[in-house]
Amino acid sequence: MLKEERHQAILSQVELHNRVLLTDIAEKLDVSIDTARRDVKELDQENKLRKVHGGAISLGFTTSSTRNTNIYALPQKITIAEKAATLLKNDAVIFIDGGTTCMEFARIIPLHLKLTCFTMSLPVAMELTTKPKVDVIFIGGKISKESQIAIGANATHALSEIKVDYGFIGTGYVDASDGLTDFDWDVVQVKKAIMKASKKTILLCISKKLNSRHRYKTCDMTAVDTMITELSPDDDQLKLFRNNNVHLI
Amino acid sequence: MLKEERHQAILSQVELHNRVLLTDIAEKLDVSIDTARRDVKELDQENKLRKVHGGAISLGFTTSSTRNTNIYALPQKITIAEKAATLLKNDAVIFIDGGTTCMEFARIIPLHLKLTCFTMSLPVAMELTTKPKVDVIFIGGKISKESQIAIGANATHALSEIKVDYGFIGTGYVDASDGLTDFDWDVVQVKKAIMKASKKTILLCISKKLNSRHRYKTCDMTAVDTMITELSPDDDQLKLFRNNNVHLI
DNA sequence: TATTATAATGCAATTTACTGCAATTAAAAC
DNA sequence: GTTTTAATTGCAGTAAATTGCATTATAATA
User: HTH deoR-type domain: from which residue to which, for each copy (chains A, B) (predicted)?
Assistant: First the structure.
């Protein structure tokens, strides 16, 4: 393997996970630790990453105030994810839906927290594998290419056999009177099943989606126990939601 | 062979694989290393590629878009993946195991190919969502953090209910007499289930793993229908495998 | 503090690069 | 067709780069 290829491989790993261990480089690229260290050292000198004890981290990781340099992660979603994370307690059993907001939530879960997480979102599951104390269980099924979640009879059936404390879900569209709606029928079916499997349903939703609706209905607002948005609780837009016994954060 | 022809051959190689080794050029084009080096040097000066120690890489290789498609792929694994891909036909129903070699295989599947793919590897499933004509079905279960595949009773049970034409599997260790072995018991159980669900088992395995073994056994070599490595079929190491009715590519 | 893990350094073995040169080949000139 | 000329190629010797290992130093962690 050419040195240049190794360098690219290391950079891609850093780009993807924001960090990389020297031992991982050595093993996966089939070189000695020394070579891995030298590679990282050179990349550091070229200002492509930052070398730290035991590995390397991406340049933006430490400096930028916004946590992860995911271009899709809007700051509001991080705010929501941070609020949602405050609900988590050790040994909780939760479900995490797909979508970028839930993805942000998964990303923000503290490393020391012991959890059991169900999900049928591929990216969320991938992210959760980086959390040492989180048990991850994936609900299988046919994979929807757009949303990268498992759908179909298999998925809904598997969901019918579990019960979790909290179901953290997202939605495509939400409205105080029309409830949660989506444009994909299969996705709606799965979301229904998630809510049935959850003792409490927590909706993560950026304010942009408030007051919008689409073809297929997941549920009424009354079925949602808690809704988390980035707006302050006394925002005008939220008044309508208070009538549905929805707890707002 | 004319110099210009060589230059074209080198460029097409670089275009295809993003890289080329001087030793490969020398061997395949039947010239000395020196000539190969001189050719690459000229192409570099013409800005057709970038010369690096030991070979050359394509100019676009460093852009992050191509980088993401080349995470941690050893060149040998690409060779194996390419060979494996030749077995695929339209409308085939296959299973793809986890591991970097199988990942490379998933990556190389042509976009025009219509397939149904089962997998219980998160990265493989993610990759497959980029193939428009491939139906992806994920076998759910508890996710193993090291290997990022679904394991456990759920996974093996789900596997017991399907039947695929080809099962493309990897293994941690392989030996002609001891067969396929691994260090993780759960993983071995899943691999067994995969083989049971496959009409034909195709083992993708880099030569480095040949003649190695570990604690838990998946199966004997006789259970493998085809083994694909990057070695030439008359390599000495492979002689031992011929005795097991294993088809080598 | 003790213990472990990681880093830095020097060194030897290997691989690759460069240089000059002679032999060969292809093209040009006669 | 023959000779001349220039380009190309392979080889040998040397220089440089790369790599892995051993050793010592340093940093992290309990």
Answer: 3-58
